[in-house]
Amino acid sequence: MAEIEYKGIKVGGSKLLLVLPLVGTIMGGLWGGFELFNRYTIMEQKIDSYVAPDLSGFDKRVDLIQQEVGMMQQEMSMILQEVGLVADVAKELKNDLRGDVRRIEKIVEDVEQKVKNDGRELNTDISEAIKDIKQEMNDLEAKIEKQIKLALENPLSGMAKSE
Q1: Does residue 16 or residue 139 have the better pLDDT?
Q2: What is the dihedral of CA 75, 81, 82, 85, to 10 degrees?
Q3: By the 8 A CB rule, do 134 and 142 touch?
Q4: Residue 3 in contact with residue 11, Cβ under 8 Å?
Q5: Is pLDDT at 163 greater than 50 in this prediction?
Q6: What's this model's pTM, rounded to 2 decimal places?
């Protein structure tokens, strides 16, 4: 086996296989620590040099949007109140109209009934009037026939019947 001797220290092959990775790990750890420290110092410099951006414009815009949203909410509230009032008025008008229609229907029914009754009475009156007229015509006809008969039978009229 191979051995390495340095200043009186002899290191054999099997020990060398343990020492080399150990030395590599220590050197990698030191290098990693240096990189970590270097990145930490760079980060610290960036943090120290950081200046917060001016967001006052955004704050003003947010305030303006909040005001507009507030006004829109107020307008929506007023619109909803108006819609509620309109709905109430419409409901009241519908109920009033329904009542008016019912009253008109009752009046129409009453008028129809009265017209039917008046029609019946008129038909009865016309029938009676026709009967009265027929009776008067018969009476008038009988009266005229009687006068004609008397006139014809009158010896002075010269139209007397010769029998």
Answers
A1: 139
A2: 180
A3: no
A4: yes
A5: no
A6: 0.39
Single-letter residue type at 115: V
How far, in Å, are 4, 17, 100, 117, 143 from residue 120 at the CA level?
148, 137, 30, 5, 34
Q: Where exactly are the structural domains of the chain?
A: 1-51, 71-163
Distance between the two ends of the chain, CA-based, in angstroms? 198
131 token code pair = 């009967």
The answer, yes or no, to whether residue 61 has pLDDT greater than 60, is yes
| DSSP state, residue 9 | E
Is residue 3 within 8 A of residue 17, CB to CB? The reply is no
Q: Identify the burial level of 11 via C-beta atoms within 10 angstroms of its C-beta, where 0-12 means exposed, 13-18 middle and 19 or more buried.
A: middle
Q: Pull the structure tokens for residue 110.
A: 């009453």
